[in-house]
Each structure stands twice: as C-alpha cells, then as structure tokens.
Design goal:
- The complex is a heterodimer of chains A (about 160) and B (about 475).
- Chain A is an alpha/beta fold and about 160 residues long.
- Chain A has one domain (about 5-155): 3-Layer(aba) Sandwich (Rossmann fold), CATH 3.40.50.
- Chain A has 6 helices and 6 strands, in the order E-H-E-H-E-H-E-H-E-H-E-H.
- In chain A, helix 5 (about 115-135) links the parallel strand 5 and strand 6.
- The radius of gyration of chain A is 14 Å and the shape is globular.
- By secondary structure, chain B is an alpha+beta fold.
- Classes of the chains: A alpha/beta (about 160), B alpha+beta (about 475).
Chain lengths: ~160, ~475
C-alpha cells in the first residue's frame, strides 16, 4: 500500500485547523492526497456522489455547523456504501461520555486536537499508520483515543 | 229383702205394739175421759151438794137471796155459763171427739212417722257405723297427730335454736345497719362531692365547647393555610421546573463557552509553536522568548478555562449517586496520572477502602485533584508517598461541630509527605483562585481544592486540611453514609 496514495478526507469548519492539517500532511513521509470540506452537508453530499472516489480515511471534526460530526458518523456507518471507511473523530475536548458515545457509534479512533504542532504531526502520522496497517480495521477501546504524546513512529514506520 | 221384710215385720210388730200401746193409751185417755166425765159427774154431784148446801145456805141466802138471787142470777148466769161451759164442754167433747179423730189421724201420722223413724233409725245405725269408722280413722289420725305433735315439738326445739340464731343474726343485722348508716353518711358526702364535680364538669364542658369553637376556627384557618401552601407548592414546583431548565441551559452554555473560549487559545499556542519551529533562524532570542511566553500564557488560560468548566459543572451537574467501591475510583485516578506517578517515583497506597454511595464522575475528579496536588507539592528531597484510608465512624466520635452525633460518616483521609503548608491557611486553600505560591514556583489555577470542596458539599459532607510546613498534609473528608 505504500506506493499508493492515501486518500485523506478532512471535514472541519475551522480554516486554521484545516491549514495546519494540510501542513502536517505535507511534512509527513507519506504519500497523501487531501480533500477538505467545511461542514456536514458538504461532507455527505461529497461522499454520496457516485462519481467521487471513496477516501481511505476520514478525519471528522465533532463540532461543525449544520450537520455535526456525530450525525455524519451515524449516517456514514448506516450507509452500506460508506460504512467501511474508517472515521477518525477529532475535537478540542475529550470528555469521556463524548468519546464513549463516538466509540459506540463506530468511530475508528478519536484524536484530541493538540496545541503543539509536533504533537499534532505525530498523532496524524500514527493514526494514518494504524489505518494502513489494519486491514480488517478491528477496533479496540484501549487504542481508541490517540494523543501522539509518545514517540513511537520509529518502531511503526512502514 | 228377706232381712228387710224381717225387719219390717219386726217393725210392724213394733208398730203394732206401739199402736196397741197407743190404743191402750187411748183407752186410758177414754178412761181418763170417762174419769173426767165421772169427775164431771162428780162435779155435778158436787154441784148438787152444793146446791144442797145452797139450799142450806138458802137460809143464809135469805138475805142472800138477793145475793143469791143475784147469786142465782149469777148462778144462773153461771149456770148459763156453765151450760155454756157444758155446751162448751160438749163442744169440747165434740172437739175431743174431733180431737180423738184427730188423734187417730195423728196416730196414723205417728205410725207413718214411726215408719219414717224406723227408716231414720236404720239410717242412724248406718250413720253410727260410719261414725265408728270415722272414729277409728280419727283414732289413727290422732296417733298420726301425736306423731306430728312430736315432730312439731322437735321442730319447735329446732325453731328455738333457730330463733337464737335469728336473734344473733339480728344483732349482726343491727351492726350492719349501723355500718350502713355510716356508709350512707359517706354516700351522702360522696354525692355532695359528685355534685361539686358535676358543677365543675359543667364549667369544663362550657370551656370545652368554647375550645371546640376555637378549634373549628383554627381548622378553618388551617384549611386556608393549606390552600395557600398548596398554591405555594405549585409555585415552588414551577420554580423548580424553571430551575431545571436554567440548569440545563447553563450546562450547555458552559460546555459551548468553554469550547469556544479554548479554541482561539489553542490556535495561539499552535501558531506560536509553528512560528518558533519554522522561523527559528529569523527570530532573535528575545523574539523566541516572547513566543514562548505567548504559548505559556495561552496554555495557562486554557487550563483556567478547563478548571472553571469543571468547577461550574460540579455545581450544575445532576447528582446521581451510585454505590461504588473507593478502590475502583482510586485505580482509575492512578491510571489517569500514570505518567506523573512514574515520573516522580511516587507510591500511592490505599487501605481499607469502603463501598459508598457517590457521584462517581465527581468523586473521581475529587481524588484526581487531591492526588495530583500531592504529586505536585511533593518534596524534592524524597519520593512522594500518598496514603489513602477510609473507615466508617459515628459522628459523636469525631471532634467536629459540623458533624451530627447520631449520624454515621465515611471518613476518607489522603495523607502525603510533601512540602505541606502553614496551618493558618488551612481554610484559605479551599477558596477559589487562592494559591499559596506564585506561578514560577508551582503552576496551577488555584481552583483545584475549591472543586474538591464543592464536590464534598455535593455529597453533603465536609472536608478539612491539616498540615505543618515541610511535614506533609492530610485532607480529611467526611461523607454521611446513606442507605439507598
């Protein structure tokens, strides 16, 4: 899979965060193609369009206007076409009841938006690595929340 | 019948004899009559004599002729009278004859009577026989009577004894009567008392009636008061519903505002970090320093917002109690602070943990804050040792005026061996934004212990802190035990 591009879809209403995410991907030693949408409606419209290619991974912001991350996650997991896409939710807050609900609704991982750029880079790299490794995408609770605090990229790099 | 005939014959004989006798008697009577007649004749003779005498006496009667004449007249009258008497006598004789006829008739009658008499005699004999029978019976009766009399005498003797007894009884009765008299006087006195009591009762009843009137007034007032209370309760329920709504809104507001406040701060941190990273060459040391400070300030603000969020949420949050073992919570907190614990080589010991009714999410925050503080304020000279104990104790065994003597409390203590604090600050440390050090010495928002206090209050308990400088600190929490 290394040769192929990883199609990354990002749904986030915050322009600054989108910009930072783009910069992170540019700095990672992975071949990625990024598509950005800014709210839930745009996301679902894009995903359900027949002509569009499905992404390999979706990074989904929880708090978005109109349709928020929760609703999108539920719709995606209910759709036969879309339910196989691994969805990584991310948000500024990481309250347990929120993350529990996201796990129950089928999210692959949860990332708390870090304030340190390097940490952000690490966690995105780690999550992409996990996605590419998990061929059947088994979900486990103890690896659900990713923080990027530990430097383990060296051991996991493909 | 033969006997009867015989007796009749005898009777007849008797009667005949009787008749004969009677006839004899009649004969006698005749004889006597004749004698009487003779007598009469004699009398007549006598008269003649008399007349002779008279003649003799005529001489005498010479002068008595007149007298005699008179007498003769008288005699004549007397003779007339006599003649009359003779006539009368003849009448008498006739009458006699009639009388004899009558006598015959009488005799007949007598014979009839005799017959009847004989019958009567028979009857009499019969009666006499009966009488003799009666007499015999009477004799027996008399014997019986004598016996009865003996009995009566015995009874009489007994009666005599009984009478003596009765006399004794009567004495007793008189004594009783005397006592009764006394009792009656007592009764009269009692009755007087009763009448006094009755009078008092009447007064009491009047009082009671009055009281009842008052009670009814009070009852009416109570009904009005109850209606008022029901209305007030309705109002309270409306207020309570409004409060619930307000709380829900506040919770939402809290979350949103904290999230929206944090977001720009995060950006500031991230972008400042990005600049430091990308523009290292173009920045002077001062410039780099400034950006570090910007990051630090933004970080502090984020921490403050987060702590404020937790603090306000402990106020607003629903207080859902669950029965949970303290050990579970402590293990969860140890997992949360794993890196910090490992970094400081801290030892956390939890002994005798009890099961309690808690709000799990809040109590976890409480233990997190206390243990985090114990780690933060540890002494650089020694590795941190945190001891957590719990026990159930009755309020009267504890020296705290705020604890009720009769209630049972779960007493949890968290003791550390850190830098401690001066005793005079033992209350101030629980106030919001109160810190005992400045930012350079120990970072922190000064809300941690305020949150702890709030959570303890949410559990209806109290928290106290004791410490000496450099001798560690102990936090004692008392939560009342509830049965749910």
């Amino acid at each position: 899979m290394a040769a192929n591009e990883v199609l990354v879809l990002l749904a986030d209403d915050d322009i600054d965060d989108c910009h930072l995410f783009k910069e992170v991907l540019e700095e990672l030693p992975l071949s990625t193609r990024l598509t950005i949408v800014n709210n839930g409606d745009q996301l679902m419209k894009l995903l359900l369009k027949n002509t569009s290619q499905l992404p390999h991974v979706l990074f989904l912001d929880v708090n978005m206007p109109r349709k928020n991350g929760f609703q999108c996650l539920t719709e995606i997991k209910l759709s036969d076409k879309l339910k196989a896409i691994p969805v990584i939710l991310y948000s500024t807050s990481s309250e347990q009841d929120v993350t529990d609900r996201l796990y129950q609704n089928g999210a692959q991982h949860f990332i708390r938006k870090p304030s340190d750029f390097l940490q952000f880079k690490r966690v995105i790299h780690y999550s992409l690595t996990l996605i590419m490794q998990e061929t059947n995408l088994k979900r486990t609770k103890n690896n659900f929340i990713l923080t990027g605090e530990n430097d383990f990229i060296n051991s996991e790099t493909i | 019948m033969a006997i009867l005939n015989k007796s009749f014959e005898e009777e007849l004989i008797l009667v005949r004899e009787e008749l004969c006798f009677e006839k004899e008697e009649k004969g006698k009577l005749f004889a006597e009559l004749i004698v009487a007649r003779n007598e009469l004749f004699f009398q007549k003779d006598e008269r003649g004599k008399r007349a002779a005498e008279l003649g003799i006496a005529n001489i005498e009667l010479a002068f008595q002729k007149e007298e005699k004449g008179k007498r003769a007249a008288e005699l004549g009258i007397a003779n007339i009278e006599l003649a009359f008497e003779d006539g009368e006598k003849e009448k008498r004789a006739v009458e006699l004859g009639i009388a004899n006829i009558e006598l015959d008739f009488q005799n007949d009658e007598k014979e009839k009577r005799a017959a009847e008499l004989s019958i009567a005699n028979i009857e009499l004999v019969f009666q006499n026989e009966e009488k003799e029978k009666r007499a015999a019976e009477l004799g027996i009766a008399n014997i019986e009577l004598i016996f009865q009399n003996n009995e009566k005498e015995k009874r009489a003797a007994e009666l005599g004894i009984a009478n003596i007894e009765l006399a004794f009884q009567n004495d007793e009765k008189e004594k009783r009567a005397a006592e009764l008299g006394v009792a009656n006087k007592e009764l009269v006195f009692q009755n007087n008392e009763k009448e006094k009591r009755a009078a008092e009762l009447i007064i009491a009843n009047r009082e009671l009636t009055f009281q009842n009137g008052e009670k009814e007034k009070r009852a009416a007032e109570l009904i009005i008061a109850n209606k008022e209370l029901a209305f007030q309760n309705g109002e309270k329920e409306k207020r309570a519903e409004e409060l619930v709504l307000v709380n829900t809104e506040l919770l939402a507001f809290n979350y949103i505002s904290s999230h929206d406040l944090q977001e720009p701060l995060r950006k500031i941190q991230t972008l400042a970090g990005r600049i430091l990273e990308k523009e290292t060459q173009n920045l002077s040391d001062t410039g780099k320093d400034y950006f570090h400070r910007i990051q630090s300030a933004a970080g502090r603000m984020r921490q403050l917002i987060e702590d404020l969020l937790v603090y306000s949420r402990t106020n607003i949050a629903e207080r859902k109690f669950e029965k949970i073992n303290l050990n579970t919570i402590i293990e969860e907190v140890k997992a949360e602070l794993k890196e910090n614990i490992e970094e400081k080589h801290a030892i956390i010991e939890a002994t005798e943990m009890c099961e309690m009714n808690l709000i799990p999410f809040q109590f976890r925050q409480l233990m997190h804050n206390l243990i985090r503080n114990a780690l933060k304020f540890s002494s650089p000279k020694r590795p941190p040792y945190i001891l957590i104990k719990s026990r159930i104790v009755k309020g009267n065994k504890l020296n705290n005026a705020k604890l009720m003597h009769t209630k049972s409390y779960c007493h949890i203590s968290v003791t550390d061996n850190g830098i401690g604090f001066e005793p005079e600050y033992k209350d101030r440390i629980f106030e919001v934004f109160q810190k005992l050090h400045n930012r350079e010495e120990y970072e922190g928002t000064g809300i941690g212990l305020a949150i702890v206090k709030k959570i303890v209050e949410n559990h209806n308990g109290i928290v106290t802190a004791t410490s000496q400088l450099n001798k560690g600190a102990t936090f004692d929490i008392y939560i009342p035990v509830t049965e749910n």
